[in-house]
Amino acid sequence: MDLHDTAARLGVPVEDVERVHQLAGDLPSAPLPARADAPAMLDRLAVPPDDAAEIMAGWPDADSPLWTPELRWLLDRSIALVRADLGGAEWLPPGPELPRDRGPAWRHLYVYAYLALVDVARAYHRDHGIADAVSWLSLADLGRNLAIDRRMRGEGWPVMQSWLTLHVRGSVYELGRLQHHRGGATLALHVPDAGPLTPDAIDASLDEARAFFPRHFPDERYEAFSCGSWLLDPQLLEYLPAESNIARFQRRFELTPYDEQEGPDADVEVLRFVFRTLSTPLDELPRRTVLERAVVDHLKAGRHWQWRHGRFPI
């Protein structure tokens, strides 16, 4: 195949197509679920009805005119690329960012790749003795992220398409209120959009993880929980009550020295998580809560948020 021609037809840099070609090579892909089984799977993955309808409308049937040869190639090789790193713990872009306004096949290509890998992930979980209920709860982060992306009018997906490869590679597990990310020297904590961050809910999730990982991954040793987030920025304490859930979450961690070059742009991430928008002017953002007012006032004052890292013993 001509990679330059494929890149041109996809509307992406040729370097992105070359990367997929190099990483996926001739490695095995995985089939999508049968169309008849897809609605039930989408429901178990908590995919909202509007997104489920679009996904079904763009389904990669063999005779679908929506699926050009270059799209079919990218879908197949993206599945192979992610599957080849089963068990991997690093963020992994499954392929280039596509122009998603060109229809459901383009908009949801990496969702179809995720669906093809669900059974691969569940088999990996079974091999480690993980209950199917934990598998589905963890994998259902797909639906949550599709809902967020719809709320963000498509601004959220470029980050999410890489984030979700962790779930189908068996690296992220949702245990109660927190997601736990295995790999490296610590268990990394992620905070999904799933209700209040109460101390009791955090304690219960941490206790579950303390039992879960030694049971299912006995060869791995973790001495600490870690987190990298704007939630750990001490500047938040200038605005939030000392007994707020965020303040109490912060107090669990010993922070590492701040390095402005490490991690994503915290100003962007705060807007992403607090307001679910990256393009709304500050003056038009809501000010309903203490946190919303804090974010806006801080940025309007010309100050910046920090992405901070911390840890505490298991």
Topology readout:
Elements: H1 3-10, H2 14-24, H3 38-44, H4 49-57, H5 69-83, H6 104-107, H7 109-127, H8 132-139, H9 141-151, H10 157-163, H11 165-168, E1 172-175, E2 178-181, E3 187-190, H12 199-216, E4 224-229, H13 245-250, E5 254-255, H14 266-275, H15 290-300, E6 308-313
Parallel strand pairs: 3-4
Antiparallel strand pairs: 1-2, 2-3, 4-6, 5-6
Helix pairs in contact: 1-2, 2-5, 5-7, 7-8, 14-15
InterPro entries: GNAT_C, NAT_N
Pfam family, one: GNAT_C
Protein name: DUF5596 domain-containing protein
Q: How would the global form be characterised?
A: globular
Q: Largest sheet, described in full? A: 6 strands, mixed
Mean pLDDT: 96
As an assembly, this protein is: single chain
List the domain count as a whole number: 2
- β-strand amount: 5-15%
Helix and strand content put the structural class at alpha+beta
Q: Which residues form runs of ≥5 with pLDDT under 50?
A: none
User: Helical proportion?
Assistant: 40-55%
How many strands appear in the DSSP assignment?
Answer: 6
The number of helices is: 15
Spatial sequence of strands, sheet with the most strands: 1-2-3-4-6-5
